[in-house]
Design goal:
The complex is a heterodimer. Chain A is built from 14 helices and 4 strands. By secondary structure, chain A is mainly α. Chain A has a domain of 215 residues. In chain A, the strands form 2 sheets. Chain A has a two-stranded antiparallel sheet. A two-stranded antiparallel ribbon of chain A has the order 2-3. In chain A, strand 2 and strand 3 form a beta hairpin. In chain A, helix 2 packs antiparallel against helix 8. Chain B is α/β, with parallel strands linked by helices. Chain B folds into 2 domains: 168 residues, Rossmann fold (3-Layer(aba) Sandwich), CATH 3.40.50.300; 76 residues, no CATH class. Chain B is 33% helix and 26% strand. Chain B has a 6-stranded mixed beta sheet with strand order 6-7-8-3-9-10, with helices on both faces. In chain B, helix 3 packs across helix 4 and helix 3 packs parallel to helix 5. Classes of the chains: A mainly alpha, B alpha/beta. At the A-B interface, helix 6, helix 7, helix 8 and helix 14 of A face helix 2 and helix 3 of B.
Chain lengths: 330, 254
C-alpha cells in the first residue's frame, strides 16, 4: 500500500493541499490550471500509456466537456454542480463512444489520423457555426455551485475542488489499472494478438477504455470552463491534443505519476520560457525554448521524468541492460 | 484425464478447408480431425500451408471455403476469442509472450480470459483466486515454477517456448494447436518439451506443426503430410515413413 509509487503521489497531493497557504492569487490560478491539465493528461495516459492507443484528438473531449458546461448552464442563475458536471462528462463520453466505435476499427498510424479527423470535425463545428459563439467563444455567465457551501466562483474553493477531483481521478485510475480490466488493457498494449488468442474480445475493452478516457477528459474541460468562465474553439484544436500528448511523454508513459509530473513540468517550462525577467525580448519566442527542451528530454530521458531515478541508479551501478528489461515487471 | 462423457472423441474437425490469397491457392480442400488423447502432426515444406491451416482453425483468418467444427459444433463463423473461450488454445511459431510482464502474470492474464469480469474495477487482479490458481497450475506443469517472478523477456529461448505452452494451458483448453514448439531448442530442452507433450496428450487433442522429424516420429500418433496446400497423406507414422508418395515429395529430400 505504502510503496514508493504511492508515497510519491500522496506526498504530491499533500503538498498541493498546503500550497494555498503560502501562495498568492496568481499562484493559485496557475496551479489550478496545471491540476486541470493533470486530470486531462491522466485521461490520455489511460489510452496511450496503458492500452497503447495513441489518440491525437483528445482535445475534442476536453472541449466538449467545456462547451457542455457553458451551453447547458443557466444564463441567469447558478446551476447545480450535481447535474451540470455529470452532464458535461456524459456529453464528452458520448462523443468518445461514437469516435471510439469507429476509430478503433483501425490501427496504428491510421488510428492516430482518424482520431485527429474526428477532433477537427468537432473543432470546426464550434468554430464555424453560431452554436458556441463561433471563433469568439462564449462566456459562462454564472458559475455552478453545490448548495451554498461549494461556490466555484471563489478561487480557493475552485482550487480545493480541482485538487479533490485530481485525487479522485488518480485514485480511480490506480484502482482500475490493478484490476482485471486494467491488466487486460496492459495485455492489449503489449500483445493484442495474444490476448485474442487466449479468449479476450479486445474491441469492447478498447472501446470501454476510450469512453472512460473521453469522460475524464470532459471532466477536465468542465473544470477549465468553470475556472476561466469562458470557452473558445482553441480548446478543441489539435495544438492542445498535441500538448497533452507531449505532457505524458515528458512525464513518462506507462505510469500515472508520469502524467502528473508531465503536466507540471510542461506548464512550468512554459512559464519559464515565457518569463521576460529571465529571457528579456527572447521570451516571445518561448515556443522554441520549450520545443528544444522537449526534444532534449525525449533523447536523454527515454522513459520520461518519472524514469529518471531508475536511470541514474542504473548508471551508477552499471547495470543498464537489466534495469531496462526489468522496467515494469508486475 | 478429463471425463469424456458426452464429449465426442473428435474435438476439432476441419472439412475441405480452402484458402485463396489472390491467385494463389494456399490451402486446397484440407480435411483433418483431432482426437482427444492423440498428437496429430502436420508436416510439410515451407510454404506448404501449415501455418495458414493453424490460423484458420484458430480463427485468426477466415477460410475461403470449408468448415471448422469444435466439439461437434460449427464454429466457422466464430471469432478467435470466442473459439478460445470454447476451449481452443494455440501457441505461436514466434514467441508471443508479454515480455515486460512476470512469468506468473503472463500465465495469470491468459487464465483471466476464463473469468474476465472487467466491471469489478475495484478488485485487485493479483488477488483473483481463480486465475492465480490456474496460472500456478499451468506454470507447474510446464516446469516454470522456479521462475514465476522473472520478467518473461529475460527467459532463455527454451523457457519462452515453455511459457508459450503454459499460457496456452492456463486457459484450460481441450484442443492445443502448437506451431513449431521445438523451434530453436537445444537437445535437452527438446527432451523436456517432448516429455511435456506426452504428458499433455492424455487430456487434450493436440495439433503439432513441427520440422524436427525425429521428434515427430517419436511422439505423433498420426501424421498429415502437406505439399503446396494439399494433403498428400494422413496415416500412422510407420505407414507415412514407407509411403512412396511422401518419400518422393518430402522425406526423400533429406
Amino acid at each position: 500500500m505504502f510503496n514508493s509509487k504511492n508515497l510519491f503521489a500522496i506526498a504530491s497531493f499533500v503538498a498541493l493541499a498546503l500550497y494555498p497557504l503560502v501562495s498568492g492569487s496568481y499562484g493559485i490560478d496557475l496551479v489550478t490550471k496545471i491540476m486541470i491539465f493533470a486530470v486531462f493528461a491522466l485521461s490520455l495516459e489511460l489510452l496511450v500509456g496503458t492500452t497503447g492507443l495513441v489518440c491525437f484528438g483528445h482535445a475534442a473531449f476536453f472541449g466538449i466537456g467545456a462547451y457542455a458546461a457553458v451551453l447547458l448552464a443557466s444564463p441567469t442563475d447558478a446551476s447545480s454542480l450535481a447535474w451540470l458536471l455529470p452532464a458535461s462528462v456524459l456529453a464528452a463520453s458520448g462523443y468518445a463512444l461514437l469516435v471510439g466505435a469507429l476509430s478503433l476499427r483501425t490501427k496504428g498510424v491510421y488510428f492516430i489520423m482518424v482520431t485527429l479527423a474526428f477532433a477537427q470535425m468537432a473543432y470546426y463545428v464550434v468554430h464555424d457555426t453560431p452554436l458556441g459563439g463561433g471563433t469568439d467563444g462564449i462566456y459562462l455567465m454564472v458559475k455552478p455551485t453545490l448548495g451554498t457551501w461549494l461556490e466555484l466562483d471563489n478561487a480557493h474553493v475552485l482550487y480545493a475542488f480541482t485538487l479533490a477531483t485530481l485525487v479522485a481521478v488518480f485514485g480511480f485510475l490506480a484502482l482500475l489499472l490493478r484490476s482485471r480490466f486494467g491488466r487486460a488493457l496492459s495485455g492489449i498494449r503489449v500483445n493484442e494478438q495474444r490476448m485474442r488468442a487466449t479468449g479476450f474480445s479486445t474491441y469492447p475493452y478498447k472501446l470501454a477504455a476510450f469512453v472512460i478516457s473521453g469522460g475524464i477528459a470532459g471532466l477536465a474541460g468542465f473544470l477549465f470552463a468553470v475556472k476561466d468562465g469562458y470557452v473558445n474553439p482553441e480548446m478543441m484544436s489539435w495544438h492542445l491534443s498535441g500538448a497533452v500528448l507531449i505532457m505524458i511523454i515528458l512525464g513518462g508513459l506507462g505510469d500515472l505519476r508520469g502524467a502528473l509530473i508531465g503536466a507540471f513540468a510542461f506548464a512550468l517550462l512554459q512559464e519559464f520560457f515565457k518569463s521576460e525577467a529571465i529571457f528579456g525580448a527572447f521570451a516571445k519566442h518561448w515556443n522554441m525554448g520549450l520545443g528544444l527542451t522537449i526534444i532534449a528530454s525525449v533523447v536523454f530521458l527515454p522513459r520520461g521524468l518519472v524514469g529518471l531515478p531508475g536511470q541514474i541508479k542504473a548508471r551508477l551501478t552499471g547495470r543498464r541492460g537489466e534495469e531496462g528489461a526489468r522496467h515494469e515487471v508486475v | 484425464m478429463k471425463s469424456s462423457e458426452n464429449v465426442p472423441d473428435v474435438l476439432l474437425r476441419g472439412q475441405e478447408i480452402s484458402r485463396r490469397w489472390g491467385g494463389l491457392l494456399a490451402l486446397d480442400k484440407v480435411s483433418l480431425s483431432l482426437e482427444r488423447g492423440a498428437v496429430h502432426a502436420v508436416i510439410g515444406t515451407n510454404g506448404a500451408g501449415k501455418s495458414t491451416l493453424i490460423n484458420i482453425l484458430s480463427g485468426e483468418i477466415e477460410p475461403s471455403s470449408g468448415r471448422v467444427e469444435l466439439m461437434g459444433q460449427d464454429v466457422t463463423g466464430w471469432t478467435q476469442p470466442r473459439r478460445a473461450r470454447a476451449g481452443l488454445g494455440r501457441s505461436y511459431q514466434r514467441n508471443t509472450i508479454y515480455p515486460s510482464f512476470s512469468v506468473l502474470e503472463n500465465c495469470r492474464l491468459a487464465a483471466q480470459a476464463a473469468s474476465q469480469k472487467p466491471w469489478l474495477f475495484w478488485q485487485d487482479a493479483r488477488r483473483c483466486e481463480a486465475s492465480l490458481a490456474a496460472a500456478h497450475a499451468a506454470a507447474e506443469r510446464s516446469g516454470l515454477s522456479p521462475l514465476l517472478d522473472r520478467a518473461a523477456g529475460l527467459l532463455s529461448h527454451g523457457q519462452k517456448r515453455q511459457l508459450e505452452i503454459a499460457m496456452c494451458l492456463a486457459t484450460a483448453p481441450d484442443v492445443l494447436l502448437l506451431d513449431e514448439p521445438l523451434a530453436g531448442m537445444g537437445a535437452e530442452e527438446t527432451e523436456r518439451m517432448l516429455a511435456l507433450l506426452a504428458e499433455l496428450k492424455k487430456g487434450h487433442a493436440i495439433l503439432l506443426v513441427e520440422h524436427d522429424m525425429d521428434a515427430i516420429f517419436r511422439i505423433a500418433d498420426c501424421i498429415t503430410v502437406m505439399v503446396n496446400g494439399c494433403v498428400i497423406a494422413t496415416d500412422t507414422p510407420a505407414a507415412i515413413r514407407s509411403n512412396p508418395l511422401v518419400q518422393a515429395a518430402y522425406l526423400g529430400e533429406h
